[in-house]
Structure formats: C-alpha cells, structure tokens
Design a protein that fits this description.
Elements (H helix, E strand, L loop, with lengths): L4 H20 L25 H18 L10 H8 L7 H17 L24 H10 L4 H15 L7 H13 L4 H15 L10 H15 L3
Helix pairs in contact: 1-2, 1-4, 3-4, 5-7, 7-8
Amino acid sequence: MKPIATDYEKASALIDAIENELKRLNHWSEPLPKEAFDNMGAFGQNTMAFEQWIQFILLDRLRLIIKEQDSFPQESQLATYGVRVFDGDPDANQLNDLLYQLDELVNKINSKPESVDINPQPPTVTFGTSELPQVVYTLIDVLHEFEGDGLESQLQTYDTFLGICATSVRPELSNLLMKAASRTENETSRKRIEEAAQSILKGGRAAEPYNHEEAMRKYKEEHKKNYPS
C-alpha cells in the first residue's frame, strides 16, 4: 500500500525519536566491521545486538523509504521482539513504546491508509482464553530464521502465552512448532524446535525461563570483545 504524505512525516518523527532514545540509553554504537552485515539473520541476531540492527539496518532502510517515497514493509513486529530483548530493563520502556508505535503505523498504512493512529493501546490477551493470540501465528512464520540464543528467546515467548491461555491450546501450538521445524534448514535449530513442540504437547515448557542477568552478562562480554577500549 502506497503511504500518503503524512505517513512519511509520522514515520520520520518516530525514526528520529528512536535514534534519540538509543543515544539516551547509550546504545548508539560505533561503526561495525563489514563482516557483521553478512548472514545477519532475523533482526541481526547472528552477528549484532538488536539495538545495533535498529541503528545500522532498520533506521537506514526506513529513511531511504521516506526519501524515495517508497512503500513500507508489509508487516512490522519490532515491539514483539524488543520486549524479549529488553525484558527486565525499565529504562527501555520508552524505546519499546516507540517500536510499538512504528509497528502500528506501518501495519495500518498497509491496511487502512486513510486512518492511522500512532498512539494505540497495546493488545491484550484474556487470561484462560482457549484461542492462541494472533501474534503467535506471526512469530511462527519467522521462527525458522532463528538460531542459538535468538531461537531460545523466541521459544520463551511461547511459554509466556502458555501461562495465559488455557491448556487446550497446547496441541495447536505444538502442531505450529512442528510445521516451523519442517521449514528450518539448520538441523540443530530444527531439532530444538521439535523438542519444544513435544515438550509443550506433554504439558511442559518450550524453553528454560528467561534469565535477564545471564543475558546481560553475555551482552556485556560481547560488547567488551567488540569494543575493548
């Protein structure tokens, strides 16, 4: 769907706000080595931190779209991934909110360009619901692209929904994961997804609970390795 002029203006304002927020959080990086842009994987998870992907990939792509008055991506799920990456970090709430607003703007441009609300309320899921929320199907569509820690983070997200939904959703979620596994080229990742699917079907978890302290330790070690000074 072709955006209208005000859509570009709103997107530009959000992009600038995201850049400013990254800088405020001290997440604005020095240039990355060329090899970091090879085989990045979804959201850059193979070679760079999510905030680096936002800086070097997302913002540049969106600014080019705005400059050339081109079409935005068909779908945006930045906030869903960002919530997992920044879980437990209250300082990142504003950044997550900006990512959510950008998601809503892009998605509404492609569905209802004549009416765009950049101040939406986050979607809610009723406790005990017997239906999987729509976002689960969106996440499943890209699950085959993830590996390693990125894959574990995605699997932890499904456990969050299992804690909210009724147990009757387990067979459906297990089936969705098995389908995702069949699309996964990386053998290790395929087996890991199949393992998660079987565990869910038997009443277990998809992954070990998210450990924010451990994740931050790994991030700091990686950051120190890339930027020793």
